[in-house]
Amino acid sequence: MSAKCSAVCGGGIQSRTVYCQQYISLGTYITVSDEQQCPQQKPATETMCNTFQCVNELAENTPKIRTDKSHFVQMKPTRRVMLIIGGKGTIVTRTTILVRCPVKHLDQTDVEWHRDKVIIPRDKKTRIMVIPKNGILRIRKSRLKDAGVYTCNAGTESANITIEFHSEEDALNLYKYRLKYIKVSSELLKEYNANSAHESWDDSYNYTTSPYTFVPHEWKTCSKTCGGSGVQNRTITCEIIGEEYFRVVEDKICINQRLVPPVVVRECGWKECPAWISGDWQECSQKQCINHGVATQTVNLDCVLPNGTTLSLDYCDILSKPVHSRECNNSECHPVLMTSPWTKCTRSCGGSGIKTRMLKCIWPGSSRPAGNNCRNMEKPSVVMTCQTRPCPSVCYDQSKYCSLVKTLHMCRFKDYSVRCCRTCS
User: Fold this and answer.
1) How far is the first Cα of the chain from the last one, in angstroms, to the nearest whole number?
2) DSSP E strand stretches across 93-242
3) The whole model's pTM is what?
4) In 250-345, which ranges are continuous DSSP H helix?
5) 186 confidence band (pLDDT: 50, 70, 90)
6) Is it the case that residue 219 has pLDDT exceeding 70?
């Protein structure tokens, strides 16, 4: 009887006991101690078993894609940028984009790229292509329409990268904001990029001085402008910043580098709310006429804190804003006709032309339209004639052959003398 296999997979040994026996009678056997008495060759006592490959070994040899989850943001126009599959890239248009898909247990030339489930060709004639010798995706002189999700496939493994674009102006603003946080040289950042998908697959890479930094963003609007208990929030990002671009990485990377995150919540607003303070009503002036015998008068408003500090009107509650304009009686309010300046004469020379001007009915002071309130008034003229000086005579040649006309004495003919006026005069 055979024993169990010594291994469930990957090759084991199965053993059994072999006896030399002699038949006596009636199905009875006795074991012979001298195995040489058995005429046949002794059968094998061990054999290989379960030689199929273990599942774990199969998994270890399947292709694995190394991804970079960071967000790459370009701040200065450059000829080209190199990205790693797995994250996101915000690029300036017209930049050539190269995207690596580092794979273990698979030749880089066997990597396939897709966009919207359509395979990207390995054709050098196309602007978006896969470089045949290394499997790198290349988007030459990128355009806005190239934005989207690109997928790298390696066997059963796949990974994505999202490409989007921003303007040079937006990129420059990001650069200006991060100037004070730049502490990585272009060479060190290139070293980081090379290590982020290094062929050794070594995750123990460290810098002597941390190249990472927490970058705080703008404070959001205060939850309450006054009355106490107001708070403001802001976000922070962990970044590695160079001269031409920066990468946004996970916050835990900065924390593991023992960097202290900036404050993200703070109190805001005044403890007491400002109030509206009204002044005296101004005179009912003719300068503010809006109808027959009707004008408007206004009052100055201030927004003031209890301690007497005057603030911008925006800080006071708009819903409780007092009335600051009202109608008032002014017997001197009558509509008037206003004319615009005369236009230029329709002719510049050689006879008479016309000039025109606009006529409007308005309320004086406010200059608001008065509609038909001027219909019974005598209206000034809006059209007048204008005389111009005589036009200067202009004599010029209309043909490049006029010199030949004069040589052939053809100026005596009216048609030629007109067409070659300058030559024939």
Assistant:
1) 134
2) 96-100, 103-104, 112-115, 118-119, 128-130, 137-139, 148-154, 157-166, 212-216, 230-233, 236-241
3) 0.57
4) 251-256
5) low
6) yes
